[in-house]
Specification:
heterodimer, A: 466 residues, alpha/beta, 2 domains, 10-stranded mixed β-sheet, 12 helices, 23 strands, B: 243 residues, Rossmann fold, 6-stranded mixed β-sheet
Chain lengths: 466, 243
């Protein structure tokens, strides 16, 4: 990917809102009427409508969580819950309207298309308008489309799995998403199929006061493999935006799933995401999760190790700058013997940014020979910034190995002096220390993403208070 | 050419150097010896520009330019190099990326990636480090000897005009000592002026200095030719030498 068209290249504070016309825009606020209208516009089956309504009821009943970041400023009545841009759901690039294309160009979609990508799904506000799966993948029976399309074309698969990993009653924001969800990706990989190149999707919030509630469902059958990458960016607005997504992954026996998120929300977005995977016998699930930007992020990717020998690897990194709160972490539930999990969290705080790590490892009785290791490292770049660690180990089985480590570091004068003695200026030296600190995450990324991730970090490092 | 003119240096309000002068021309090798706590490392850090080491009096010229008030990176860009006694660990930063970034920041002509890596690998082999070394974090988990070899490797890539090497021999085994010594001789042949700080004579049998200076209690007590090092070996830093 060239620098000109990279999606990470969009500096959230500088990007402009594209001039996009909307075909449908529901009035602000949340009600049963709004939910019924969304479902009707999408011509959904009744079971989905019923689930939406049940979720809405739960959302209204459920109190706001108060244990984490400050969410008191979110005004649910000032949010638009459904917007549809003026375009159909296209599967050819040529048909995409110019103004939208322009936005995508900034996001790197055409470049991605030209390159080796296996397929690209893009969400433009509430509905996905551009989607393409390489023919060879389609031939192998891989389904990669937006979830609204999946609900129309493959209702039996969606109904079988939707809400099974993240039920709407899981938490308040999962309930909200389940009530008003729109757009998001659907991936189905049949038994034994190994998707060798990453599937990629790009998201962008592009309307003022617009909540984005995408829903992603990934099903990987026995012995199959897939790597899904999502990159997010959003232009900056003065009013608060809400992003409440749900991602469900079902990893069947002996499958491998890697889900990579590189996120670059603008500094006014509340990013409250529930990500969870069900790992069956011998399955291996990896969450690679980078949280940059946003006003508040609360996200704790989770793996339920349900089958014997299932494994989880969760790497979460966060960058908290001025006025930002990155409340992130990971969860692993060991429900079967011989399961293992590793959790690595890395946070960088700067200019008074706050980061918090919440890690939960639970081992139930009978999950013998389970292994778990949790590590969180925090790097504070100045005295104003803050980092907290909340690790929880609930182990109800004796024959297990668990471990936990936490470190908090600062950039030392001697470290800077050493690097600067070779010619680097202070900014370059600090950047180098920060990108080195995050390298355990970066080295897991495909090369072009690693390069862009480093550039994004550099951008954040040079962005003073904005 | 590095000219240190009668400098006085304070650390945390305590005077460490009390009027030190040195003049190092290109291709010259100067050995600086002296007992523990005499101020050898302080001299190297002060000349390089560590913010904790305050020059209260005196002047430092690099090729005629006063660098006394320059930040460390600008001194580096002018061709000054310090091989650290205790190199800092930087997790996740490979030496290859570090050196390339350093060259770029010094605005030197930087070879393109392929030829840079070729040069790096050749020099890696010369200094006796394995290629897998490139995958490790800077100084992270290096043995004492590897750290010293790495400092010499960095010097050979950055090609400074003046290199101050603070105990490049400490922590090395016999092979390491030879490798480090060869690296120093090579840099010197390529034109670098070297200030070699050492406790021991041993390295001086591999790197023959043009001049030897003895620093005691913040002052240079004696300067001479290579024979001075032998004298110290026999008599120590006692009064015989210090007078």
């Amino acid at each position: 990917m060239t620098s000109e068209t990279s999606f990470l290249d969009i500096n959230p504070s500088k990007s402009e809102q594209s001039d996009v016309e909307y075909e449908i825009e529901l009035p602000k606020g949340l009600s049963e009427e709004v939910v019924r209208t969304i479902s009707k516009l999408k011509k959904e089956p009744e079971w989905m409508l019923n689930q939406r309504l049940a979720a809405l009821k739960h959302f209204f009943e459920r109190p706001m969580p108060t244990w984490g970041a400050d969410l008191s400023k979110i005004d649910f009545n000032s949010i638009t819950y459904y917007i549809k841009p003026k375009a159909g759901n296209e599967d050819s690039w040529e048909k995409v309207p110019d103004s939208i294309k322009k936005t995508y160009e900034k996001l790197g979609i055409p470049e991605a298309e030209r390159k080796f990508l296996a397929g690209a799904g893009a969400q433009f506000d509430s509905s996905t308008i551009y989607h393409k799966v390489r023919e060879d993948l389609a031939k192998q029976g891989v389904i990669f489309c937006d979830i609204d399309t999946a609900l129309q074309k493959h209702p039996e698969i969606v109904e079988k799995y939707f809400g099974t990993v993240v039920p709407y009653a899981d938490n308040k924001f999962a309930a909200l998403n389940s009530a008003v969800w729109s757009g998001g990706s659907f991936v189905y990989v049949p038994k034994g199929v190994k998707v060798s190149l990453p599937l990629q999707a790009y998201f962008r919030i592009n309307a003022k006061n617009m909540g984005q509630f995408e829903r992603t469902l990934i099903i990987v059958e026995e012995g199959a493999e897939v790597h899904y990458i999502e990159g997010c960016s959003a232009p900056v607005y003065s009013t608060d935006s809400l992003h409440a997504a749900v991602v469900e992954v079902i990893a069947h026996k002996n499958s491998r799933v890697r889900y990579t998120t590189l996120q670059n929300w603008s500094n006014d977005v509340y990013n409250l995401v529930t990500k969870r995977a069900m790992a069956h016998e011998g399955a291996y699930v990896e969450w690679l999760d980078a949280n940059i930007g946003s006003k508040v992020t609360m996200k704790y990717p989770c793996v339920i190790l349900k089958g014997r020998g299932a494994r989880a690897n969760i790497i979460s990194v966060a960058f908290a700058g001025a006025g930002q709160c990155q409340d992130t972490g990971a969860k692993a539930y060991h429900l079967a013997p011989d399961t293992s999990s590793t959790i690595l969290a890395k946070s960088v705080s700067k200019d008074g940014g706050k980061s918090a790590f919440r890690g939960l490892v639970k081992v139930i009785p009978g999950a013998k020979n389970s292994k778990s290791h949790m590590r969180c490292d925090a790097l504070l770049l100045d005295k104003k910034s803050k980092s907290d660690t909340f690790p929880t180990l609930q182990v109800d089985e004796n024959e297990v190995k668990t471990g936990h480590e936490a470190t908090v570091g600062k950039v030392s004068e001697d470290q800077l002096f050493y690097l600067m003695s070779r010619g680097l200026n202070e900014q370059q030296a600090t950047n180098m220390i920060v990108s080195g600190f995050l390298e355990e995450f970066t080295k897991q990324l495909p090369l072009e993403y690693a390069v862009e991730f480093n550039r994004l970090i550099e951008l954040e490092m040079t962005n003073a208070i904005n | 050419m590095l000219e240190v003119k009668d400098i006085f240096v304070e650390v945390d309000g305590k005077e460490i150097l009390k009027g030190v002068s040195l003049s190092i021309k290109e291709c010259e090798i100067h050995a600086l010896m002296g007992p523990n706590g005499s101020g050898k490392s302080s001299l190297s850090l002060a000349v390089m520009g560590h913010p904790k080491y305050k020059i209260t009096k005196g002047e430092i010229l690099l090729n005629g330019i006063s660098i006394k008030d320059f930040p460390v990176n600008e001194r580096a860009a002018l061709g000054l190099f310090l091989g650290f006694q205790y190199p800092q660990e930087v997790e996740g930063v490979g030496i290859s990326n570090f050196l390339r970034t350093s060259l770029l920041s010094q605005e030197k002509v930087v070879p393109e990636v392929v030829s840079f890596h070729k040069e790096l690998k050749e020099k890696l082999q010369k200094i006796g480090l394995k290629e897998e070394f490139l995958k490790r974090g800077l100084n992270v988990g290096y043995s004492g000897g590897e750290k010293k070899r790495s400092e010499i490797l960095q010097m050979s890539i950055l090609k400074p005009k003046i290199a101050i090497l603070d105990e490049p021999d400490s922590g090395t085994d016999i092979d390491g000592l030879k490798a480090v010594a060869n690296g120093i001789v090579e840099s010197s042949k390529e034109g670098a002026g070297i200030l070699l700080i050492t406790h021991y004579n041993k390295i001086l049998s591999h790197v023959r200095p043009d001049f030897v200076h003895v620093l005691v209690d913040g002052k240079i007590m004696k300067s001479g030719g290579p024979e001075l090092a032998e004298e110290i070996e026999t008599h120590g830093y006692g009064t015989e030498v210090a007078v």
